[in-house]
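User: My advisor asked me to double-check a structure prediction for YbaK/prolyl-tRNA synthetase associated region before group meeting. I don't want to rely on an old file, so could you generate it fresh from this sequence?
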Amino acid sequence: MSMSATLQGCLTDKGSRYEIVRHPYSHSSMETAAAAHVPGDRLAKTVLFEDEQGYVAAVLSSTHAVRLAELSSKTGRHLSLAKEGDLRELFKDCEYGALPPVCTAYGMKTYLDESLVRQPDVYFESGDHEALVHMDGEQFLALMDGAERAHFGRRMQGMSV
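Assistant: Sure, here is a fresh prediction for YbaK/prolyl-tRNA synthetase associated region from the sequence you gave:
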């Protein structure tokens, strides 16, 4: 698989400048950062939550974890992790676990954690487990202009920059 068609469309529509960084197959965001030789703080990961109203995407640095109470407070919703089967159905043009951050393009309310807002450049999944999209911070924020900014992440213990 290559870049998701949905992501490709978003990048084209926004006139985004980016490069593709290829890396060995990886299973987790921290494994991806190591395999691609990129700083974990600059690698965006996407975590999907749900409730009876639908889905909410949280985009944050791979060195951070979602504080669910903070995200639920921000959204005013009682969220829980989305089911694995739902991810496959919602992101049909992506490999499981390789979700790009442009979830607004998939019709989901998206929240962008402050952990990524001040990064000089950002990397994120292209829709598969062997390529990242790399762009400067301003380009990333322009791509994510439909996301609401919030502070819901916390640095995981033992995670360095």
